[in-house]
Structure prediction request, 253 residues.
Amino acid sequence: MIWDTHAHVDDTRYTDDFPEMLGRAQAAGITRILNVGYDLPSSERSLKLARECDFIYAAVGIHPHDAKDVTDTTWDALRELAADPKAVAWGEIGLDYYRDLSPRALQQEVFIRQIELADEAGLPIIIHNRDAHEDVYRIVKEHTPKHGGVFHTYSGSWEMAKQLLNLGFYLSFAGPLTYKNARQVLEVAEKVPSDRYLLETDSPYLTPEPYRGKRNEPAYVREVAVRLAQARSLPLEEVAVQAWQNAERLFKI
Ligand SMILES: [Zn+2]
Prediction:
């Protein structure tokens, strides 16, 4: 049993084979999926899927790319979505200085606002951090979420990881762990305490080996779990169960 804790299966890339894609996930033992929003429409789609599908849960939130499009009504709408029992996290939120699609000051403002909203809603947060380590760390240190959170597709150093673990965060591993140049993230995978890691795909992005180059889908989270188990010299089963229990603790399911 593996839980893909970060996927975007509402993406149009699944329109043609949605039931088959979910079938492949179930056949591979992926029995839970957390579908993550990045703007208001995708948050609505995530919750709709979660309501229709037993084993799908939803996260709602505004990605830093979309910080520039936020209005006052966005927050009211998200608050309402977050109150649904199938909404188990606020995200994905954070900072992205790689693509810089919204001004950095605005990204920070929207990030902090959503940590506050997650606190009010009683939800943990899902953090997206790209090339913004210093500012993300400063913000989560000053505004540590009351209900915890996870750094999704963690890509930083072990030094940074230790600081985040000290603040109570979880670290989530995705396809990049399986890539040949994964030295830095492999070190984190070896050293992270057993009660702090999660597994994810970030489907349709970041396809793990040996499927790299194809569209990603939740069934492939198995490859990430296999690599994490190798890194920790543990049976796959043990890593999968541990990651599942960690996710249940964080998302309170
Ligand atoms: Zn994502």
Notes: The longest helix spans residues 104-121. The CA atoms of residues 51 and 86 lie 7 Å apart.
